[in-house]
Sequence to fold (526 residues):
Amino acid sequence: MTAFRAAFGFQIAYMRRNRDQLMPLFASPLYTVIFLAITRAAGRDDLSSYAVLAPALIALWAVSLMSAGEVIDSERYEGTLEAVVATPASLGVVMFGRVLAVVVIGCLAFFESWLTAALLFGVVVPIPQPGWFLATLAITVLAMAGTATIMASVFVLARSARTFQNVLSYPVYVLGGVIVPVSLLPAWVQPISRVVFLSWSADLFRDSLGAAPVEAPVGRLGMVLLLGAIGFAVGGWMLRRILARVRETGTLAYA
Amino acid sequence: MSAITDRLPPPLRIARHAVAAGIADFSTMFTWRTWTTAWLGRMVLQVVFFALIGLLVGDAGTVRFLVIGNAVMLAAVESMFAVASTTWERRAGTLPLLVASPTSPLLVFASRSVFWLATGFVSSSVSLFVGAAVFGIALPFPRALLVPPMILVVGTSTYLFASFLGALILRAMEFRNVVGNVVHLAMMAICGVMVPTDVWPSGVQAIAALLPVTHGLGAIRHLLDGGGAGPILRGLALELTVGVAWYVLAMLSIQRLVDRGRSDGTIEYAD
Fold:
């Protein structure tokens, strides 16, 4: 627990000093402006909740991709991975603490997009079902952290982590249905979308912003949790494999 | 090849070497295979993402507006990556050598990111025709074949603007990615990419008129809507004028950076 707390606190301090890491939070208000401008110009004020929610989901994904994904890679770059691995604390726990801190910071984007909509457009999006909204948020944060652990491992092996991060943006926004529900995508795309946990989260968030009762919320939250757990399992397995390999080849600290 | 290069005038020779350095940077990020599959696919999906919002709002005109606007914007998006890549030169520690040389450092800074202009041109052109095909948008041929050269004008103008931002960011390099991204998103919002510029208050419209994309994209829309040559050429001329004006400011900014660095010793070998 001490290692987890230390890792969590370290990541918060690291991101405060590396403003580049907060880029998704700078972008979030602008996405809100873009989406609201489109829906309002088309006379579809009824889609305001979609337009306000989407920037927060984009920021949450982007900050995970950018900061959480680089957790291991940055340790290698700084030449500190060797020391981190040598300590008695589990690397998995340290990584989880850092990744979770990133995702929690990413949640600030929800506040930003709601505030931008209210201040610039006078649009206040109510949350009629706050219980399901908060439950979806909590489960999404965990699933995001799980997915980020896969990325943290993949980026160590990638030719350029930043390129990977750029490539994984809009394709995931489409498949994750962050603004356009998966049900509007072509039929052949929908099964692929359903493997992306964000598609379940986005639908749940949107439903919790509507007046109608959320349908089958427990099962859908379970799907988000399941996909997140798969992320943790796959990410943890990859991390163990990578560490074993770099220990064998003596390339743990190449910085 | 080197004999030919040696006979080039010094500025062109230097620019050629800077372009080669940029291409070397590019090759550390992509192979041709990863660029044509992963990257180009991602760029096309950016257009698809925004065009889908047109389907969501249920208006065919909005879909067409978003496909054209976002496809053209891709040229600007990639040109804006030059804001960050301009700092790669200073981070490599070459600034003192550039300042000591008889040529302006801006020539190197502005040349070494020019690969973004080329990749942006391809991404944008491909995305326009693919996006139009995917969403069933009829483009008027052969007139539509004039769009790629116009995209190049938009990309160039934005690249010159990015050179100015890059010159500013050399003073605060930790913001290199934030500035490029925030500014290009602001351009997407107000330069007629997502919604017509006239939906914004007059003050915002005035800012948009000083930015790249606005006039060039307007000219492209005019062309695709069957408009006459006069407004199209005027739009392209304005687009280039905006870019050149920003480049003049970039030159002044770099000169100031060099002058100040010489006087206070802040020209370092690496950050």
Residues 2-249 of chain A form one domain. Chain A touches chain B through 37 residues (CB under 8 Å). Chain A has a mean pLDDT of 86.
